TrEMBL record:
GO cellular-component term (any): cytoplasmic vesicle
Family (UniProt): Belongs to the TMEM163 family.
Cation efflux protein transmembrane domain residues: 23-198
Keywords on record: Cytoplasmic vesicle, Endosome, Membrane, Synapse, Transmembrane, Transmembrane helix, Zinc
InterPro entries found in the cross-reference section: Cation_efflux_TM (IPR058533), Cation_efflux_TMD_sf (IPR027469), Tmem163 (IPR026765)
UniProt-annotated location(s): Cytoplasmic vesicle, Secretory vesicle, Synaptic vesicle membrane; Early endosome membrane
Parts of the chain that traverse the membrane: 20-39, 45-66, 86-103, 115-135, 156-178
Keyword Transmembrane helix: yes
Name listed for the protein in its UniProt record: Divalent metal cation (Fe/Co/Zn/Cd) transporter
Domain of life of the organism encoding this protein: Bacteria
One of the record's GO molecular function terms: monoatomic cation transmembrane transporter activity
Length: 242
């Protein structure tokens, strides 16, 4: 079953996504500065990787902000594929850097020191990131925007990584398990590659149906092509490149 969003509802969701994207940019910029600084001080590949992931979040959010800066739904749809590619490339760049640094650490280049600042930062992100992700994912799915959903998945990835980072930092601080730091960094790299591939393929959502209607947005019953799982006709595998 498909439903048409009214122009008023579409405008509300678009404004909501803009606000959530702005909040994500502000938080992640602060998170990146603190994490990279703390990571350099503690020689922590995981913390530096986490900070770089925050910069990926910023680039992703900026790509979505650029897409949703357009007032016209058709223009936003035309920008969708480009936004998804920017998100994917940012993920791949993050994965490459973090992998190199983690392998250097595992091979004995330098062991990570405990970081109280990193522990506090990771704990804050465990609380804040899921809330931002859930709000944007709901709005993006209802609006039918693949890039907004992809960006929310990056934010959720940040939450998962926060949990992994917190665990690794605590293991190092409490028991001196320095090897836990590069292992967490490699986990960050693997998850980044996975999300990058999905973003490149346009798999985050079935794709926006904004181009299907004039004066309204078309979306699946659950907000984003719920009939994808059964091969419904409203589904397609990637962003519209027409």
């Amino acid at each position: 079953m498909l439903m048409v969003l009214s122009a008023e509802r579409s405008a509300v969701l678009t404004r909501r996504i803009r606000l959530l994207v702005a909040a994500t940019i502000v938080y992640n910029l602060g998170e990146a500065v603190v994490a990279i600084w703390a990571g350099r001080v503690a020689s922590s590949a995981a913390l530096v990787g986490f900070g770089l992931d925050s910069l990926v979040e910023v680039s992703s959010a900026l790509a979505v902000a650029w897409q949703f800066s357009a007032r016209d739904a058709r223009t936003r749809q035309a920008r969708e594929a480009k936004a998804m590619r920017v998100i994917a490339l940012a993920f791949f760049a993050l994965a490459a850097y973090v992998t190199v640094e983690a392998l250097r650490s595992l091979l004995g280049a330098q062991e990570a020191d405990p970081s109280v600042v990193g522990i506090v930062l990771a704990a804050l992100s465990v609380v804040i990131m899921p809330a931002l992700s859930l709000s944007q994912r709901r709005a993006g799915r209802e609006l039918g925007s693949a890039s907004a959903v992809a960006d929310s998945k990056q934010t959720l990835l940040c939450a998962y990584l926060s949990v992994a980072l917190l665990g690794g930092l605590l293991l190092n601080a409490l028991w001196g398990w320095a090897w836990a730091d590069p292992v967490v960094a490699l986990l960050i790299a693997v998850m980044a590659v996975r999300e990058g591939v999905e973003a490149w393929r346009g798999d985050a959502c079935c794709g926006s149906a904004a181009s299907a209607l004039v004066g309204g947005e078309l979306t699946g019953e659950d907000g984003c092509c719920s009939d994808c799982s059964d091969g419904g006709s409203g589904c397609h595998s990637g962003p519209d490149r027409s």
